UniProtKB/TrEMBL annotation:
SMART domains attached to this UniProt entry: PKS_KR (SM00822)
Domain of life: Bacteria
Boundaries of every Ketoreductase domain copy: 7-192
Family according to the record: Belongs to the short-chain dehydrogenases/reductases (SDR) family.
Name this polypeptide is given: SDR family oxidoreductase
Any GO molecular function: oxidoreductase activity, acting on the CH-OH group of donors, NAD or NADP as acceptor
Amino acid sequence: MSNVEGKVVILTGASSGIGEATAKELASHGAKLVLGARRKERLQELQKNLDKEGAASTYKVVDVTSREQVEALAQHAIDEFGQIDVMINNAGLMPQSLLNNQKVDEWERMVDVNIKGVLYGISSVLPQMREQKEGHIINISSIAGHEVFPGSSVYSGTKFAVRAITEGLRKEEAPEHNIRTTILSPGAIDTELTDTITDTDVKPGVDELYKQAIHPDSIARSIRFAVEEPADVSINEMLIRPTSQQ
Ligand code: NDP
C-alpha cells in the first residue's frame, strides 16, 4: 500500500497549474483531497474528474488572504475526513515588475497571498497536527526564492520569506511534535502563473524564459515523493527546474 493512501491533504491553489496536477497525482495514489481556491467552477470540475477516478475529495472556495476563510478550509477537512495529514500551501501569484514602475498594489497583493496566505495555512492546521502528534506542511517557494533577478525583487522577497518561515517551522515543530516540513522550489513550470504580469518591461523576458517551461506534473510527482516517505523521513527542501534552465 502506498504511504499516500488514505492521507487527508489540504491543497490551496488547486484550481489550476501545479495545484491541479498535484491533486490528480495524490488522488491517483489514494489520498483524500480537500481542494481550495477562489474559482468555484474550476474546483467543481476537478472534483468531478477525481470522482470519476474513484478518489475521495471535497472542495471549498477560499481566498487565502482571509484568515477566517483559510481556517474554515481546515475545519472543512476535519468535518469531512476527521484529520489533516498534509497541508500544501501552494496558492500564489507572480506579477513581476521593476521597482521603479511603481506597481505598489501588486506588491501588496503578493505579500498578502504569497506570505500571509502561507502563514494562515500554517496557523490553521498546526493545532490539529500537534493533537494528532503527526503532520506534514509543504510550502511552495520558487527558484526566485533562492536568487533575485531584475523584476523579481518583491516576488523573490515573498518566496525567500516562505523558505525562512518553513525552516523556522521545522526547527520549532519537527523534533518535538513530529511535524514534517517541505520547501519546494520550482523553476519555469507551464501554468497560468505568468498571466498576472502587467509590467511590459518585464513580460517579454519572462515569456522568453518560459519557452522551456516543463509540465506541472513534474512538481506533482515530487510532492508525492515527499508525502510518500515514511513518517521518520523528512524531505525538507527540493529544487526542480527544466534541465535547460540556467
Ligand atoms: P497558477 O496561476 O496556475 O495557479 C495559482 C493558483 O493559486 C490558482 O489555483 C489560483 O486559484 C490560486 N490563487 C491565487 N490567488 C489566490 C487567493 N487569493 N486565494 C486562493 N487561491 C489563490 O500558477 P502555478 O500553479 O504555477 O502556481 C502555484 C504556486 O507555484 C505559486 O505559489 C507559485 O508562486 C509557485 N511557483 C510556480 C512556478 C511556475 O513557473 N509556474 C515557479 C515557481 C513557483 P484561483 O485564481 O482560483 O483563486
